[in-house]
Amino acid sequence: MRPQHGKLVEPSDGISQATVAEPAVRQTCEKSSVLVIADDHLERIMVKLGLKRNGFDVWLAPNGPEAIDLYREHGEHIALVLLDVRMPGLDGPKTLEALRKINPEVPACFMTDNTGDYEPQELLQRGATYVITKPFLLDDLANIIRRLAPGVSTDLLPSGKVCQG
């Protein structure tokens, strides 16, 4: 990720590369861990460092199958899943589908610079709460996760906002 400034913009600005869905009502809990799923090693490490600096515990998985195994074993500690859309083998949407079989309520956020065969609206329909485009500031990502993770009031989510990196 290059150090560039991300910004939150209104959908009326004509940018449709990333979108936010209305989150479902969630139960309050004491989870602060994020499962980061991305095939790029440097990306995983950078996201981990940024999230840890912002107070999150971070689990890392380089692909869908490892993420599924980690979630199966440690899901009760994971507040949110952050996953790349395009990965070899089991891509992000298919990984989320498998995670939903374990926990239908798992909060998920896609991060991508290229959604490939998926439109942002389709990613939201598949269960993502948020789609953020790369590059983004790590502090902005942490703030988005704070607003989406269980235990955080949904009133803090800027409904109808689009995050453009």
- State the low-pLDDT regions, or none: 1-29, 152-165
H and E string:
EEHEHEHEHEHE
Structural class based on helices, strands and sheet pairing: alpha/beta
Work out the strand percent. 15-25%
| Fraction of helical residues | 25-40%
Q: C-alpha Rg, in Å?
A: 14 Å
Describe the structure.
With 165 residues, this protein is an alpha/beta fold. It has one domain (7-164): Response regulator (Rossmann fold). It has helices at 41-53, 64-74, 92-102, 120-125, 138-148; strands at residues 7-9, 33-37, 57-61, 78-84, 108-112, 130-133, 162-164. The strands form two sheets. Strands 3-2-4-5-6 form a five-stranded parallel sheet, sandwiched between helices. It has a two-stranded antiparallel sheet with strand order 1-7. Helix 3 (92-102) links the parallel strand 4 and strand 5. Helix 2 (64-74) runs parallel beside helix 3 (92-102). It is globular.
Ordered list of secondary-structure elements with their pairings:
Elements lengths: L6 E3 L23 E5 L3 H13 L3 E5 L2 H11 L3 E7 L7 H11 L5 E5 L7 H6 L4 E4 L4 H11 L13 E3 L1
Parallel strand pairs: 2-3, 2-4, 4-5, 5-6
Antiparallel strand pairs: 1-7
